[in-house]
Amino acid sequence: MRIVFKTNYMQDIRPWKDGYQLSLYLILLAVVFAAPFFMDAFYLGEMTNVLIWAIAGLGLMILTGHTGQASLGHAAFLAMGCYANIILLDAGVPFMIAFPLAGILTGIIGMVIAIPALRLHGIYLAIATMAMSILVDDIIVLTEPWTGGVGGKYAPPVNIFGFMVDRWGTPREFYYLVLVVSVIVTLGYINLLRAPLGRSFIALRDSEVSAQAMGIDVARTKAISFAISCGITGLAGALMGLFAGAFNNETFSVVISIQLLMMIVIGGLGSIHGAFFGAIIVGFLPQFLSIAKEWVGAIAGGSSVAIPGLEFGIFGMILIIFILFEPMGIYGRWFKIRTWFELFPFYRKDMFKRQKSYLKTERLR
Amino acid sequence: MSLLEIENVTLKFGGLTAVDNLSFSVEQGEVFAIVGPNGAGKSTVFNLISRFYTPINGSIHFDGHDLLKEKASDVASHGVARTFQNIELFEQATVLENLLVGRHRHRQSNFLTELFFTPSVKKQEIQSRHYVEEIIDFLDLQAYREKRIAGLPYGVRKVVEVARALATDPKLLLLDEPASGLSVEETTDMRWWIDDIRRQMGITVLMVEHDMGLVSGVSDRVLAMADGARLALGTPAEVQSDPAVIEAYLGHAA
Ligand SMILES: Nc1ncnc2c1ncn2[C@@H]1O[C@H](COP(=O)(O)OP(=O)(O)OP(=O)(O)O)[C@@H](O)[C@H]1O
Ligand SMILES: [Mg+2]
């Protein structure tokens, strides 16, 4: 059993509970920074992919996991970030400016698009954002002079402090680029969550009326959440474009939107960890499946079988299993295991049981 | 001038007149109770003050401000805090986080300073926490400060909601049935807390309550309502012996 005694406010304000937890995170950070020295190019590429998905997941997590606004349209913001970055690069803007600018632009556009959507709730918001995601395909085709339309575009190598970085030529440098971005985004996210703005997001998610009664401007705060969310997603989109090397109107389809939402649900809504856990699943599922297929093929005889949509189907099944048995996602499971160890031997089975939720109606009483 | 002045306020839901040409005012420093049978329009009065609804006529002034000119989220910034009849807490957050949301109206920081968690944000956080811890002590919530609301018993939630309202550092506290669903002991605690809130903190209290023991124990004046209109207004004893009030209660019971 591990008990943390609190003797001053900083212990609640700082992001880690105690020195033990801090050292665990520092070790993790050291391991991921050292990864290029013990991983081959293939797995480093996979790690890079996972981190990019994690950044995108963090973007959606702010909006859906922390502010409670479902979006099935975030692939649109990945696309915006991706194209904005490349168009700026093509125009001769240096990467170190083009990249953050792509994020900021996507954030602003996201907020403007969000304003009419702010009146929508739950499933209606999900449908509206999904419609937007479907539209993006056509918009990219229609704006062919800038976007390259169906023919698509190629990502050039980018110049970072004089180093030319591209995904194939210099996978190690590209990995560090993505890693640094993901660390910065995560730190900013942590800061927001321990400050009034992050708490006002959570307040909106859990009860709009009482958030309002506490002085939180609902429309304004939702718009800010959209802006931050879309901005981060835009950064992830820019990295995705560089990682893919080539992309066109179909790269950021609505399927990506759905996958992104499923990813954070599986990872655990309402936690930063959830975005990372979810990204690991999304990133490694194809590898895992191909290994499993070979294995099945070897046992059952016959060569590898190709089943269209298998990956997506399995992903959906995992999602259903989580919703039924672990609605708090992988993070929820991890949290319970950790609590078990910390409280050993005092853990009770009903510790995380949800209380009967009191009848909720739209009517204010 | 009174702290809260409600004049000739009327609100209709479709054909139903929920509040009917109602006027009353609450003085600085008093505990003012609203009583009345179910559906009398008591909670609707609270929702009008909170600006969730806009009356079709009449006026609501608080501390010199015309509340009808304000948005719902600005009411808190003038110093009005409230609880809800059906408890509206932030379910997935801890008690501490719930109370910290109460400090929102005192926020000095902005998106950028919070993103970098500048020293000024840190200072503000320490001040918020200092304030909130005092309320946790006052309402005896130490045992629950890190617990999520979702796992807390009903009685504790009621207290947390009062604590969150106090965290806003209000001038006027609106309590919608603070004792409903509480045990006898919890109701007694609530009674002393309401007394302390008025006496020690100097906060004016406007509450809706069915428990007449609590009402006559803590309130200076009582407004009795039925069908959205005023039946009687006076000291608890006066209102309880008012023939119109007795009639309204018996009429509804029969
Ligand atoms: N949003 C709404 N839409 C339609 N009718 C409503 C709405 N809110 C309240 N009412 C109606 O207005 C009347 C007053 O409701 P209110 O909730 O203010 O009563 P109350 O005095 O608080 O009763 P209780 O003691 O049951 O809490 C009731 O008839 C109720 O059905
Ligand atoms: Mg009521």
From TrEMBL, chain A:
Its main location: membrane. One of its GO terms (cellular component) is plasma membrane. The chain crosses the membrane at residues 20-38, 44-63, 70-89, 95-115, 122-142, 174-192, 223-246, 252-285, 297-325. Pfam families: BPD_transp_2. InterPro entries: ABC_transp_permease, LivM-like. It is a multi-pass membrane protein. The keyword Cell membrane applies. It is found in: Cell membrane. GO terms for molecular function: branched-chain amino acid transmembrane transporter activity. This is Leucine/isoleucine/valine transporter permease subunit. It comes from Shimia thalassica. The lineage of its organism: Bacteria, Pseudomonadati, Pseudomonadota, Alphaproteobacteria, Rhodobacterales.
From TrEMBL, chain B:
Residues 4-252 form the ABC transporter domain. InterPro entries: AAA+_ATPase, ABC_AA/LPS_Transport, ABC_transporter-like_ATP-bd, BCA_ABC_TP_C, P-loop_NTPase. CDD domains: ABC_Mj1267_LivG_branched. PROSITE patterns: ABC_TRANSPORTER_2. GO terms for cellular component: plasma membrane. Its EC number is 3.6.3.-. SUPFAM superfamilies: P-loop containing nucleoside triphosphate hydrolases. Pfam families: ABC_tran, BCA_ABC_TP_C. GO terms for molecular function: ATP binding; ATP hydrolysis activity. It comes from the Bacteria. Keywords: ATP-binding, Hydrolase, Nucleotide-binding, Transport. It is an enzyme of class 3 (hydrolase). PANTHER family: ABC TRANSPORTER ATP-BINDING PROTEIN, CONSERVED COMPONENT OF ABC TRANSPORTER FOR NATURAL AMINO ACIDS-RELATED. This is Lipopolysaccharide export system ATP-binding protein LptB. It comes from Shimia thalassica. The lineage of its organism: Bacteria, Pseudomonadati, Pseudomonadota, Alphaproteobacteria, Rhodobacterales.
